[in-house]
Amino acid sequence: MDDTTAMDETTMSETQSMAGDAVEEQPAAATTAPMDAAPLRSLIIEREIVVPVATVAITALPMENTVEIDEMFEDVGDTEQFKVMDLARKSPNLTTFVKLIEQANLVQDIERLNEATLFAPTNEAFAKMDKQKLEMLLMPDNQAQLMQLIQAHVLPSKVSSLQFNTTQRIELTEDSYLPVDVTLGGTNVVVGGATIVKNNIEASNGFIHVVDTVIQPDEVAVEDAVGN
């Protein structure tokens, strides 16, 4: 992809790379309106995989939402007093998502981010996944695949739902990305096949956007054509 194509197809840029405790961030873009800039990117972790000792059983993962979507975080009060990970822990509908972040050994990586946006699948979103595939991802030897799945749900920047538009995309690697589709005057946002069903829950360092589907990069990522 040449620079002109990248400018046409995307609206903002934020690059995060981690090697151990090293964190490098570019300045965050404003969060109030779409902007014309370089690609928006998902969280990128570059470090040796540490295989967890314990395995999380699929039966230990909640697969039902206990709170209505519209009522999520309503009991928290001032959500901006919490960082995104702490805020995610406060919703019973996100219990499975939080457990998988822990299983993927990504909690500290997310907590170290100065700014972050989570596309947070509900428990019922995970219930829609193929059971055998979810069980496979929970196996210790498959932590790398689980990390890739979780990273697709994390942006190392603070992005409100108003910033997304259909010409935008989220880069996973240099040659693959998640499509973004915005319709109904910006009120319907779909990222990698996952619809945002409750948006802009603001934390002290970012946003949580609740989604109804788990983003699965191996199924929904789009590859760049040769020469683009």
Largest sheet features = 9 strands, mixed
Give the H and E element order: HEEEEHHHEHHHEEEEEEHE
Highest-level CATH class: Mainly Beta
Radius of gyration: 17 Å
Give unreliable regions as ranges.
Answer: 1-33
End-to-end Cα distance: 4 Å
Features:
disordered N terminus, alpha+beta, 228 residues, 8 helices, 24% strand, 23% helix
What does this structure look like?
- This is FAS1 domain-containing protein.
- The protein has helices at 3-9, 84-89, 95-103, 107-111, 123-127, 131-138, 143-151, 217-220, and strands at residues 16-19, 22-25, 40-41, 44-45, 116-121, 154-155, 169-173, 176-183, 188-191, 194-203, 206-211, 222-223.
- By secondary structure, the chain is an alpha+beta fold.
- A hairpin with a 4-residue loop joins β8 (176-183) and β9 (188-191).
- The chain is globular.
Describe the structure in brief.
With 228 residues, the chain is an alpha+beta fold. It is built from 8 helices and 12 strands.
What's the structural blueprint in terms of helices and strands?
Layout: H1 3-9, E1 16-19, E2 22-25, E3 40-41, E4 44-45, H2 84-89, H3 95-103, H4 107-111, E5 116-121, H5 123-127, H6 131-138, H7 143-151, E6 154-155, E7 169-173, E8 176-183, E9 188-191, E10 194-203, E11 206-211, H8 217-220, E12 222-223
Parallel strand pairs: 1-4, 3-7, 5-11
Antiparallel strand pairs: 1-2, 5-6, 7-8, 8-9, 8-12, 9-10, 10-11
